[in-house]
């Protein structure tokens, strides 16, 4: 089907095509940078990725498709309609809050990948990593100020250049390697991981949030020509691509890199280096490192454009944010919200650079934001069931088959993952599991629920905008 993102509709409005939304979604969700953590399990990585895909990815994608085909505005609108405006504000806040540590961890991976090209020793330098985080985050934020058109092009383009091309290349090299004379280091690994009690459950849980973000770009659904038809199509294709991007490269990495030598942060580049040396094309390694950096930056652009826009919309329409945080620039972009999150990310980057002992606290903070994000998914699955009952006649371009079952699976999975996530990993050492759980639960409830309820408590009638914000010029002219 032809891409219509360049075609103008009535009034000269340009639409975002379903392929653009699909690529933006894949950029937010899937990345080969995380596959080394599962590659160490060889063929069992298929099971470890498929279980979360069946009980979490598919329900999330289908539910998002139905909701987006009937209501624009994304998560905040869906939960507001189904549960209530205050719950909608909590939902979009939790989606936004989890990004505050996602960005530093993502850019830390960018730093380690670039160090692979410049000087591998830099990867262990906190100062170098902190500088990279600051430069790339603020650079991406300034790009976001230019509007959705620029962000969408960079996000979808980064996904193609840095995820699809390297991913297909990695899989292709893996197949050729298997038929060659190279040693297959995944040989002997079973299709099921060895069961080691609760640790095995935690292992699967780690992959649930690998699929988080399918709903992020639904906030742009009102900029599609035929959203009720095209958004579900984008979700289905993006789901299949996400699973393939995780599973196939993980297998390829397991073929060529011994498990006891595999780096969880630089494993992808280790695999490319091994493959390229095996096929005598080692000069390609730096080029592919840069391509992977493009993918990570493209994924971040997708996250910058989504949750913060949803937070602005619900903050303005319902008066849940103070006027300073509702300010938009000439392009209609949530300028002060982006600046505020930039300040938080900068503080984390500086701590990362100058306080080596902050690593364990940073890890707990990252785990905390994962728990916060699950609050949003619980509200999402509750909202879709309530809306099917309260507004059954509302036109829907797509209806989830067996909705009660599908939403029930997603809801139960989210709740179980939340509580299993309170179990400390082996890296936590001999510290008290109860202390870990209390720190994580306290921080989750404080940041995930305490902060939005504080805004609700402090809000004034003057915070509410009399009129909805007009579409910006950038939003009226969608991306090419």
TrEMBL record:
Transmembrane region(s):
12-32, 38-58, 125-145, 157-179, 191-213, 234-258, 278-306, 337-355, 361-385, 397-423, 435-458
Record bears the keyword Aminoacyl-tRNA synthetase: no
Q: What is its main location?
A: membrane
Task: Extract the signal peptide range.
Answer: none
- Name the InterPro entries for this protein: AA/rel_permease1, APC_superfamily
Topology with respect to the bilayer:
Multi-pass membrane protein
Listed Pfam families: AA_permease_2 (PF13520)
Which controlled-vocabulary keywords does the entry list?
Answer: Cell membrane, Membrane, Transmembrane, Transmembrane helix, Transport
The name under which this protein is listed is Amino acid:proton antiporter
Subcellular location, record wording = Cell membrane
Which classification does the entry list for the species?
Bacteria, Bacillati, Actinomycetota, Candidatus Geothermincolia, Candidatus Geothermincolales
MF GO annotations: transmembrane transporter activity
């Amino acid at each position: 089907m032809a891409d219509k993102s360049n075609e103008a509709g009535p009034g000269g409005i340009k639409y975002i095509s379903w392929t653009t939304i699909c690529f933006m979604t894949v950029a937010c969700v899937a990345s080969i940078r995380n596959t080394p953590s599962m590659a160490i399990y060889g063929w069992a990585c298929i099971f470890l990725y498929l279980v979360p895909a069946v009980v979490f990815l598919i329900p999330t994608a289908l539910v998002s498709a139905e909701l987006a085909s009937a209501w624009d505005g994304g998560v905040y609108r869906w939960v507001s309609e189904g549960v209530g405006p205050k719950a909608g504000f909590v939902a979009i806040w939790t989606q936004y809050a989890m990004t505050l540590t996602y960005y530093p961890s993502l850019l830390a991976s960018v730093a380690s990948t670039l160090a692979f090209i410049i000087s591998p020793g830099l990867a262990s330098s906190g100062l170098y990593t902190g500088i990279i985080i600051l430069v790339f985050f603020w650079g991406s934020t300034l790009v976001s100020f230019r509007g959705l058109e620029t962000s969408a092009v960079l996000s979808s383009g980064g996904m193609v250049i840095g995820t699809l091309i390297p991913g297909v290349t990695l899989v292709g090299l893996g197949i050729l390697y298997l038929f060659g004379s190279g040693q297959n280091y995944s040989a002997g690994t079973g299709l099921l991981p060895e069961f080691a009690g609760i640790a095995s459950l935690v292992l699967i849980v780690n992959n649930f949030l690998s699929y988080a973000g399918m709903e992020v770009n639904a906030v742009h659904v009102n900029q599609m020509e035929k959203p009720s038809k095209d958004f579900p199509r984008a979700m289905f294709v993006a789901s299949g691509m996400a699973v393939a991007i995780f599973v196939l490269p993980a297998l390829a990495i397991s073929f060529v890199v011994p498990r006891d030598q595999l780096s969880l942060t630089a494993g992808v580049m280790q695999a490319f280096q091994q493959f390229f040396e095996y096929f005598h094309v080692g000069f390609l390694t730096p080029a592919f490192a840069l391509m992977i950096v493009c993918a990570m930056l493209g994924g971040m652009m997708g996250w910058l454009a989504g949750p913060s826009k949803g937070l602005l919309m619900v903050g303005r329409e319902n008066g849940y944010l103070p006027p300073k945080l509702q300010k938009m620039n000439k392009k209609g972009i949530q300028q002060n919200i982006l600046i505020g999150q930039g300040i938080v990310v900068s503080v984390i980057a500086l701590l990362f650079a100058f306080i080596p002992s902050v690593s364990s606290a940073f890890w707990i903070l990252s785990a905390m934001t994962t728990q916060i994000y699950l609050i949003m998914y619980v509200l999402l699955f509750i909202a879709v069931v309530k809306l099917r009952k309260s507004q059954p006649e509302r036109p829907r371009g797509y209806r989830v088959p067996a909705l009660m079952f599908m939403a029930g699976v997603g809801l139960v999975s989210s709740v179980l993952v939340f509580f299993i996530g309170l179990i400390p990993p082996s890296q936590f050492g001999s510290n008290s599991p109860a202390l870990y759980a209390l720190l994580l639960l306290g921080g989750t409830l404080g940041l995930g629920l305490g902060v939005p309820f504080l805004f609700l408590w402090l809000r004034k009638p003057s915070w509410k905008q009399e009129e909805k914000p007009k579409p910006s010029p950038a939003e009226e002219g969608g991306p090419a």
